[in-house]
Every structure is written in C-alpha cells, then in structure tokens.
Design a protein that fits this description.
Elements lengths: L1 H21 L9 E6 L5 H9 L14 E3 L11 H10 L5 E5 L4 H7 L4 E7 L2 H15 L6 H6 L3 H10 L11 H5 L12 E4 H6 L1 H13 L8 H10 L7 H4 L6 H4 L2 H11 L2 H4 L9
Parallel strand pairs: 1-3, 1-4, 2-3, 4-5
Length: about 280
C-alpha cells in the first residue's frame, strides 16, 4: 500500500510539473480548485468539469485526492482535524474533491484566495432514491449494504434512506440531518453553489458560471470559448453514474404518499432552502 501511494504521488507530481512547463507563461500560484459535494449529487461530474481547466492552464490533470467525512466501508465518522489537515495539504494548481462539512474552521480555510471552491448538490428526494440503488445494488462493501439487502422491498429501503438508522452502530441520521452540516456553504460568497439539475437542463449557462467563478480570481491566457470547450469536452457520462442517466425528478416514480409524508416530517424547510420548492405543498 505504501509503495502504491508513493508511486501515485510521484506520477501526480511529475504530471503536474509537466503541466507547469506546458503552460510556463501562466501564473504558477493558481488557487486550488475544490469541488465540494453532498453525496450522490454529481461528485464525479463536477470533478470532470474542473479537470477541464487542465487543458487551458497549468492545473493538475487528475484529482489530487478525495476526502469524505465518513470512512467508506466502516461508516465511521472522521475526526474534524482530519479535514483540516487534508485542506492544509493542498497546494496551488491542485484539483481536489470532497464531501466536506461546513464547519467554521473549514470555512475559514476554504473561503480564502488559496481556493476556488464549488459546492454541488441535488434535490434531496432524488438523493434518497439514488442512495437506495447505490447501497443495495452498486456498492457491496458499503456499511449498510447487508441491512438494505435484508429489507423486503424498495419501499422499505427508501424509508430508511429518508429516516436514517438511529439504532445502527454507526452514524446514519435522516436526510435533513445529513444535509445540515453542508448548509453553511450556501451563503458564502466565495463558494459557487451548483444545482446538479442545472448541469442537465442548462449546462451552457452553468459551465459559464463555473468558468467565471475562477476567472474572477485569476486571469487565464485562453479565450472564454476555448475554456468552455475544454470543460464541455472533459465530461464523460460513462464515468459519472449520477450523470449517466441524465434524469431529474426521478423521485416522483418511487415516492408513495407515505414517503412524501415522512420526508416532509423530517426535512422541514430543506427543499425550500435549497430552491426546489416554494412550500410543502408538493
């Protein structure tokens, strides 16, 4: 494992050095491109878009690293200091990805000239549906996989994805409580917020906003159209499970009246806060 990590790091820094030579006339102190995402909301899609900048500027050609607040297989919650150490490890021209809580200490680091941060999220109703498919069918090593497999049907699994598992041995709260630690990113002017749905239904305008968010911090020696083309061409739906289906509002196929009721009971004004509904009359 140590050798593999060493080789991966060596390749990464070699490629990054070659990028610096390729774009020698451009600034070397470009900010870290940081893609923050709520789980099951287009993480891979945002990674791909940000990597598009590597075609027009001396950014890394691969994601430096990925950080998540919970360990994948065990479901154990990481110590907050680990997130801060990870943020501190990033260097100019890195591109990084994270399921990162908006704790005050993390906000203090991210909302600085060192970073050009983006936060992508998705309709939480689609998130819980996607979560069921992911845990049950796609990730056999997931800490909740066996439990979801033991449930009688999709409806029962969807209830768990909405309500969480308060009796589980690892932390898995309801959908509103899972989203709450991310809400702090919404009102930070330094962070561009992205609705996943806008990348499906209004991609050109959304890519333009993503580009402008970086250009407002640093100039790149490339035309706007060249930058946009680089971002567009970097999108590969086959490597982004959420984007591959290209669908939004799928929750309407799966939510029964009971699902709607329990979602409203636990979510409160979450959908209104995120801009998906005007009230709870859906």
């Amino acid at each position: 494992m140590a050798l593999k990590s060493f080789l991966r790091s060596t390749v990464y820094h070699t490629e990054k050095g070659l990028q610096r030579l390729r774009f020698a006339s451009q600034p070397a102190d470009l900010p870290v491109l940081l893609g923050i995402s709520f789980p099951k909301s287009g993480t891979h899609l945002l990674d791909q878009i940000l990597l598009g900048f590597a075609n027009v500027a001396p950014y890394a050609k691969r994601v430096h690293s990925f950080y998540a607040e919970y360990e994948g297989e065990s479901g154990k919650k990481r110590d907050p200091q680990q997130a801060l150490d990870w943020l501190d490890s990033l260097r100019p021209r890195d591109i990084a990805s994270a399921h990162l809580f908006a704790r005050p200490e993390a906000i203090a680091r991210v909302c600085t000239p060192k970073f050009a941060p983006y936060f992508i999220f998705r309709d939480p109703r689609d998130v819980v549906v996607s979560h069921v498919f992911y845990v049950t069918d796609m990730e056999a090593r997931h800490v909740h996989h066996d439990y979801y497999q033991s449930l009688p049907d999709f409806d029962a699994r969807l209830k768990v994805s909405i309500l969480g598992r308060p009796d589980a041995g690892v932390e898995f709260p309801n959908i509103a409580e899972r989203f709450a630690p991310y809400l702090g990113w919404l009102d930070k002017k330094e962070v561009m917020t992205i609705h996943f749905e806008d990348l499906i239904h209004d991609r050109a305008a959304t890519l333009t906003s993503i580009m402008d968010h970086l250009l407002s911090r640093v100039p790149l020696q490339a035309s706007r159209q060249l930058i946009l083309d680089a971002m567009e061409s970097s999108i590969n739906p086959t490597k982004s499970p959420t984007f591959r289906s290209g669908k939004t509002g799928e929750w309407k196929k799966y939510f029964t009246e009971e699902h709607k009721k329990i979602f409203k009971d636990v979510a409160g004004d979450l959908l209104v806060r995120l801009g998906y509904e005007k009230d709870d009359g859906w």
